[in-house]
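Your task:
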Amino acid sequence: MRGPVRYRIRRIEAMAGAKFGCAGGTLVALPLGLVVGWLARVLVGLARYTMEGWQQVPLDLGLAQVPLDVVALLRLSDWLAQARFWDDAPVLVIGGATLMAIALVGSVGSLLGWIGAGVYNALAAFSGGLAIDLEEIE
């Protein structure tokens, strides 16, 4: 039986750090993205509910009540149509927001992994890097 083998990590490839950062960022972003997607879904539903409530607002003129369509008055019909479309497609809203969060956080993680690899390589050039003792397991 031989003694422990000693290895030194002198350099980490920048792309390896970027890939590791991207994978870590993606794992972190998945639950965050689902929460953001659910929140976007709720906000779209609230916007639709609010604008549909504005379509028949009673205007009291004293002697009579006149229905007023605030959506048409403010020219929000296209916005209401879009809110109806997105409110009727919750999978698209939640999935799209989740994918956007994953892409954003994964990209940031990739950048941080790349920077971390560069920082380690710069420090390892001066200090010699990390030394690891490995022992064989039988």
Remarks:
- The mean pLDDT is 90.
